[in-house]
Amino acid sequence: MTTELTHEGTARELNTDRGVLRYHEAGEGPPLLLLHGSGPGVTGWRNYRGVLADLAEHYRCLVLEFPGFGVSDPCEGHPMAMAQFAVADFLDGLGLSQVATIGNSMGGIVATQFAIGSPERVSKLVTIGGAGRSVFAPSPGEGIRLLMEFTDDPTREKLVRWLHSMVYDPAIVTEELIEERWALATEAKTLEIARRMYSTEAFAASGRAAAASTATPYWAQLHKITAPTLLTWGRDDRVSPVDMAMLPMRELRRGELHVFPNCGHWTMIEAREAWLATVLAFLKRDDS
Hints:
The chain is of the alpha/beta class. Helices cover about 40% and strands about 15% of the residues. The mean pLDDT is about 95.
């Protein structure tokens, strides 16, 4: 039986040169870093509160709140770039040389980039949708387009449409979920930072910059990841379609894929029991 954890009881703070990073800590054992996704009103706590107690029975769970999403101190620049700095600052501040890492959506991309740049610091990697590149499906996916529409013109109706694109079962989108997401998503600073990432103008600018850049994209460097990697995906993901997993499955040295049926983008929420069983078996397995 899992112990009930509370937001206040797990909340922590870490001072860094770039501002205060806030996080949640629960459990004892080997460190497990959990990185949240993006989108209106997202937080690490909201992404992982449903599975945190179960994971904390086996690991020292550290749920980092990325700068720019309304919990940790605000950031300057693009939220994805700041997230990269935040992971290194966080682990250095806690004196952790190596961690197992779980990343949801944007957090999965950040975790993947960190494992590419600092492979010795990631013992195992789990992603939840998002990490890869579309092969067959149009890009950006439906959920990203709806997210852009909300960011350009934040209305409650557009938030609800976006939330429904995240799940297979519409019953998951409760009034309580809508209200808590709406409150944080429309906070002035959080919305301003979101527009750096997901407004139509910002998204187009990022696309132009990527096309002009000579830098190698992260999805073309997956072979640099040395950690055993588990990709978890909802078969019915409308944000990051499951065909995105094809390239990582070709390039990851030690990659494996688990696809959950009747499940959207939030695999850890919508396929909770199956996801937990799969991820815990992977994390606890001796791959030496």
